[in-house]
Structures are given as C-alpha cells and as structure tokens.
Amino acid sequence: xxxxxxxxxxxxxxxxxxxxxxxxxxxxxxxxxxxxxxxxxxxxxxxxxxxxxxxxxxxxxxxxxxxxxxxxxxxxxxxxxxxxxxxxxxxxxxxxxxxxxxxxxxxxxxxxxxxxxxxxxxxxxxxxxxxxxxxxxxxxxxxxxxxxxxxxxxxxxxxxxxxxxxxxxxxxxxxxxxxxxxxxxxxxxxxxxxxxxxxxxxxxxxxxxxxxxxxxxxxxxxxxxxxxxxxxxxxxxxxxxxxxxxxxxxxxxxxxxxxxxxxxxxxxxxxxxxxxxxxxxxxxxxxxxxxxxxxxxxxxxx
Length: 302
Fold this sequence. Notes:
With 302 residues, the chain is of the alpha+beta class. Helices cover 32% and strands 26% of the residues.
C-alpha cells in the first residue's frame, strides 16, 4: 500500500495516548497495553491518511486524540451531540453495538469533495438520504482501515445504520461503560474529530487482544529434559535446622551471660524445623551422625 510520506510524518510516533481517570480496573490499560494500542492506532491513521487523500483528492491527516472510558449516558446527552453526525456500527461476529460520531462540517466536506466540488460548503443540518449514502461509503472505508489495523476477526467493525439518529439512546443501556477512541482529522483546511465508541463487551475484546495470543511453552526433547534435571540435582542450596520462633522478654535478653541455661516456652518434644533455601520443608530432630551433626526427618510440613 502506498503512503503519503508527508502525512505519515505529521503523526508523531511518540505522541502519548491521553487517558482519563475513569479508565479503571477491571478494564484499565497497562503500560504495555497502552503502547500496543498506540501502535495499532498509528497503523490505522497511516492507512486512512493515504486512502482518504487518494480518494478525496485533498490532504487528509488523522491522529489519535484520546482514549476514554465513559458511561453511555454521558455520550448521548453530551452538549456536542447535536452537532455530530451519528451512525451505529457492529463489531465482530456477535455484532456488538458501537457508535461513530463525526463533526457535521466534515460530513458535508466529504460529500462535496466526492461530488467533485471544491469542498468549501459549511452546513449544520442533518444529511439528506443521498448525502447519507455518500457519507456511509466514507464510513465504510474508515471502518475497514480500523479493522485492518486491529487485525482480529472479533474486532471487525462494520457500518450498521440499523437505528435512526434520534433512537441512538436505545443502542445500549445508558449505564453501559463504553470505551471511546477519538481521532483529530484535518481535511484540506477543515478540522474536526471522529469518535468510535465501543460497548463494554467490545471493549473487553479489544483490551484482551492487546495482550496478543497466549504464549506456549517451548517443547523440549526427553534428552534435554533429563540433562536439565541432572544439572539441577547437582546444585547446592542453603539449609537450616532451628527451633520454632519464640518470644523472649527484653529483660531476660539483657541479663544473659555465658554458662546460663535459657528456657524456651516449648515442650521438650517440639520438633525443630528443617528449611531449604529459606523455605520450611520438614519437621526434624537434631541427631549425632558419625561424629557429625545431622537431622532426623520426622514429617513433611503441611
């Protein structure tokens, strides 16, 4: 795919993803996930920049503006909602609901450019049926490029205008916690914004995909496994044999002197603890073993 080098360079690889305070567990993004999402969005903007520039015939630049976790009611009741072109989307095989919002001046700019006009008209009304069909072709292209960047069948985003704009509030429960991806657009001299809003279920699929496929353990031959076990058996580990910890008053500690017998608050049959590499492993008893100290292993510790 050819790319417009000037437009690609206009998008900074190091541009941070803006995250709001509402992006919290269990769907919060780790640092690694944010970097992965940033890379995927960068792939999307590079592709859509090249395709839209070639299709519209004017310079087009998209850049990631923010990622925000927001209740659905805040989106549909936002003061800016009246100035947006809104259409419904479907995500993945399960057709999870999603929403696309675009500033109206951009909508009429796209329509005029695709009809061969100069792209200077600025209207604030809702698109007509013919204009809507033209805009849907633009939305199809944008959704295709975003789906390609996300590179997962479960995240294929399709234009699905099944609800009229005045019924968008029925798309999902108003308390649904949505995930929005916002992109700033520059088309010719016109600036605007496009926002993808994913339902809670679609957002979970997206966040899971940021971790990549589960890693599988590397298969080893029986000979290699046996060799590793042999080497492990020759390793040395520190071991200790000691009585269980007890509390001793400071007054007794300060009065200790050589030759005294210190009595612990333990029964005489209390076993000592045999620890390996600092971890208690067995109950044991100190014994003499051919003029050396040894440990009689009584029982494993539970």
